[in-house]
Design goal:
The complex is a heterotrimer of chains A (231), B (232) and C (208). Chain A is an all-alpha fold and 231 residues long. Helices cover 82% and strands 0% of the residues of chain A. Chain A has 9 helices and no strands. In chain A, helix 7 packs parallel to helix 9. Chain A is globular. Chain B has one domain. Helix content of chain B is 75%, strand content 2%. In chain B, helix 2 packs antiparallel against helix 3, helix 2 runs parallel beside helix 7 and helix 3 packs antiparallel against helix 4. Chain B starts with a helix and ends with a helix. With 208 residues, chain C is α/β, with parallel strands linked by helices. Chain C has a single domain, classed as P-loop containing nucleotide triphosphate hydrolases (Rossmann fold). Chain C is built from 6 helices and 8 strands, in the order βββαβαβαααβαββ. In chain C, helix 3 packs across helix 4 and helix 3 packs parallel to helix 5. The model of chain C has no long low-confidence stretch (mean pLDDT 89). Classes of the chains: A mainly alpha (231), B mainly alpha (232), C alpha/beta (208). Chains in contact: A-B, A-C, B-C. At the A-C interface, helix 1 and helix 5 of A face helix 2 and helix 3 of C.
């Protein structure tokens, strides 16, 4: 009954299954989403209290948004792989699914998760942090979108590495930060341009960098993943 | 043996001439170095700071090269080389950061400014730190090798974004970036006289040989240790 | 097609932290034959099992799984595994687990067939309860269903009768007998009662 090698349609089905498994599992327990939401709310509250009545410069507020987003990502995006290790189902996935399907399925899951959380973060931040102003909304929207994709891409491969290392989460930000710096610098710079009211075309350099970063990271991670995944 | 002697002679020559040769505004004799406006005596650090920075990148690329070879072959000897190169890279990176900070203090007034090239060397330092943190977190040798190799490759892939792209986009203090205050320009290309260039390239070669020598020593030591471990 | 499947292992060696777990392990198994793997605890049975299933790379040597006519077979599609260390997705029900098993392999899911299989392994009353509520014996039965759903030409059983009551042991024996008709059976065990009939064997205690 089984063919020699799985054709492309089968691969897509595998990817979809990996994604839906994580998705349904999350829907049932709502563990990651609620923890992340609480994290974002708490962090923004802390920022509010520490700023007090003084407030901060527009530049600082722009940067701080991405600090919150980065640490929220660090809180939640390793779960997709760490959960398999904790439950002992890594072997099950290794056995039944091709490595590429596991990678892209979980990348997709992280993408949906981080985009959702970032949308909420941006909303809360804009609502509650006075002094945070966006004049060119188009730049900001594209920045958050590209930034989310780039975050998902970089964080998924690092999550795979630390999950296989069986370490506690503290290593996750340590490994992720150097990799993500080009991403962070670009989105912060683009956000500043959006705050200042620059024209959409002026952020072209940042967008180009983000897009090439995404391509490079996704391609190299997908090649590296098989080596990490299979012992 | 010959290598060691050559290296010793070369490095000594670089140090003596780099620090000792006098600078004058209109160099006449072969032993006089030109005065570069904006840098003057501080320019001497070029002979030492640039090679260490350069080497920390070379070491990183070497580490990545052996990381790729390890993933393909699963031969732990490649991992020994990868981590030996990384260890040297970390050392040179620290040296580059320190010499750079000293230069920055004398030239621009403060030890650190987040200029793009400064940021790049800092990021490299972070990558090395992360690499060794990861290695110390995994006890099983094969897994440690696989995961750290994968990490160094993915880090290497993002490094070009720093080294080449960011300094072009963002203005910086280093000679050669956009918005260079004194217009010192690419110092290496235009402002160095022939004799300065000789010393500079000699220094580059000397440091590279130094790296090569230290690398082979570390690899040999690690292989002996691994061999002993296997017996016992 | 399953009738022509072959499993060959050549000069297999696996090191762990520079210590050799086993070396020079070789076997050649044709369809209809059973390979018995024995060895003390810690001798590397589960390591060899993983290598055979294609989820672990040997330090040296090779394993070849052929689908007949010399074509290499993809272990994802060809192999099924039941082992104490293979966990099901416990937040899901047995039916959902089988659905995942098919989907992960990129295969369409035949729900009716899955239900029939679950009935055969004795789980008909609990088709839709999450597996985490099951006893260890019932979890073992889920694992059997999961392994058999895609009719694997290569079935690998590590401790086939672990956690099973008398009924379960009978189930395991009938599964093993069927697999001998269908393709290759690999049994890793120290319980000689499990090793009823075998044509090839590997003793890992002799391969250090």
């Amino acid at each position: 009954m089984p063919p020699g090698k799985a054709p492309a349609g089968a691969l897509l089905r595998s990817v979809r299954t990996v994604f839906l498994k994580d998705w349904r599992s999350e829907l049932r327990t709502r563990y990651a989403v609620s923890a992340l939401l609480m994290f974002v709310v708490t962090t923004i509250a802390i920022i509010l209290f520490s700023l007090g009545s003084e407030g901060a410069s527009s530049d600082a507020l722009d940067g701080m948004l991405w600090v919150v987003i980065f640490f929220a990502a660090m809180s939640g995006l390793s779960r997709t792989f760490v959960m398999e290790e904790e439950r002992g189902t890594t072997l099950t996935l290794q056995l039944a699914a091709p490595p590429a399907a596991v990678f892209f399925g979980k990348l997709l899951f992280n993408l949906v998760l981080v985009t959702g959380i970032n949308a909420v973060t941006v909303l809360l931040y804009a609502l509650f942090i006075n002094g945070f102003v966006i004049r060119t909304v188009s730049i900001f929207a594209v920045t958050v979108a590209l930034g989310s994709i780039a975050l998902a891409a970089a964080s998924t491969i690092i999550a795979a590495i630390i999950a296989r290392a069986n370490t506690r989460g503290t290593l996750y930000p340590v490994l992720s930060f150097p990799i993500m710096l080009p991403l962070l610098l670009s989105v912060i710079e683009a956000t500043r341009k959006a705050s200042e009211g620059a024209f959409f075309a002026e952020a072209g350099g940042e967008f180009q960098l983000l897009i090439s970063y995404i391509v490079v990271v996704v391609v190299s991670s997908s090649m590296l993943f098989e080596y990490i995944w299979k012992d | 043996m010959v290598l060691k002697i050559t290296l010793g002679v070369l490095l000594t020559a670089v140090i003596v001439f780099g620090i000792g040769l006098p600078m004058s505004p209109h160099p006449q004799a072969w032993y006089e170095l030109p005065v570069i406006p904006g840098l003057e005596e501080k320019a001497r650090i070029i002979f030492f700071h640039v090679p260490t920075a350069w080497l920390s990148v070379i070491a990183f690329l070497t580490s990545m090269f052996y990381a790729i070879r390890y993933l393909r072959s699963r031969d732990l000897r490649n991992d020994i080389r990868s981590s030996a190169a990384a260890g040297l890279g970390l050392m040179f990176c620290i040296l580059a950061t320190l010499t750079g900070a000293v230069w920055a203090k004398f030239n621009w007034g403060s030890y650190w400014n987040w200029d793009p090239r400064e940021t790049s060397i800092f990021v490299l330092l972070l990558i090395y730190g992360a690499y060794f943190s990861l290695r110390s977190a995994v006890e099983v040798q094969e897994k440690r090798a696989t995961l750290s190799s994968a990490y160094s490759i993915i880090a290497a892939v993002t490094v070009p974004f720093f080294i080449f792209i960011m300094p072009r986009i963002m203005p910086g203090l280093h000679p050669g970036s956009k918005g260079d205050p004194e217009g010192a320009g690419p110092v290496i290309d235009f402002k160095m006289s022939p004799n300065m260039r000789v010393i500079f390239f000699a220094s580059l070669i000397a440091f590279t040989l130094l790296f090569q020598w230290m690398f082979s020593l570390r690899v040999r030591a690690a292989e002996i240790e691994a061999h002993n471990q296997q017996r016992g | 097609m399953s009738g022509r499947v072959r499993l060959d292992g050549r000069e297999l060696r696996r090191e762990f932290d520079r210590r050799t777990v086993f070396r020079d392990v070789a076997f050649s198994v044709a369809a209809g034959e059973t390979l018995l793997v024995t060895g003390r605890n810690g001798s590397g049975k589960s390591t060899l099992v993983r290598i055979i299933c294609g989820v672990l790379t040997p330090s040296a040597g090779s394993v070849a799984l052929e689908s007949g006519a010399g074509r290499a077979a993809d272990p994802h599609m060809y192999a099924g595994l039941v082992a104490p260390y293979l966990q099901m997705f416990e937040e899901f029900s047995p039916m959902e687990n089988l659905g995942l098993g098919a989907g992960l392999r990129g295969m369409p899911f035949d729900a009716r067939r899955a239900a029939g299989l679950l009935e055969r392994v004795g789980l008909s009353g609990r088709l839709h309860d999450p597996v985490r509520t099951f006893s260890s014996g019932m979890k073992q039965r889920v694992k059997y269903a999961f392994a058999l759903l895609h009719d694997p030409p290569l079935l690998v059983l590590d401790e086939p009768t672990a956690n099973l009551d008398e009924e379960g042991i009978a189930l395991a024996r009938s599964v093993m007998a069927e697999q001998r008709q269908r393709g290759i059976l690999v049994v890793a065990t120290n319980d000689l009662a499990d090793a009823a009939a075998y044509e090839r064997s590997v003793d890992l205690d002799a391969s250090r």
